Amino acid sequence: MKVLGASVLVMESLTLGFAILLATKDHSAAALIYGSVISLLLFLTAGVLKRRSGFYIGSIMQIFMIAFGFVIPAFFLIGVVFVGLWAAAIIVGRKGEAARAAFVAQAGEKP
Asked: Dihedral through CA 28, CA 19, CA 64, CA 78, nearest 10?
């Protein structure tokens, strides 16, 4: 769950960083700073996923990612796609960790 979540957050950060590069000519400095801060926070949140609170922070960051759509309208769609990937990372990650725990428990029982 941690690896999948971190990969989604890092990809979001990179996507937003490249979008900021494309938006430098068309948008104000405040919008670019807002995007840069979100990109940095997404990247840093990937490192905090070791704790349970990291997933809550990551979920809040998804809202900010969609809100960046007010600056670059395409990010409404991109944000929704990344929210789907974030949800999938959490769901698939939980199932994977449960399967791994069951496998480790089963391997520990055999002599």
From this structure: 130
pTM of the model: 0.85
Q: Residues near 38 by Cβ (< 8 Å), separated by ≥ 6?
A: 16, 61, 64, 65, 68
58-76 confidence digits (pLDDT tens) = 999 999 999 999 988 888 9
Main-chain dihedrals φ then ψ at residue 56, nearest 5 degrees = -70, -40
Dist. CA 17–CA 34, nearest whole Å: 11
- Burial class of 53 by CB neighbour count within 10 A (0 to 12, 13 to 18, 19+): exposed
How far the first Cα of the chain sits from its last, in Å, is 30
- 46 touches 89 (CB < 8 A): no
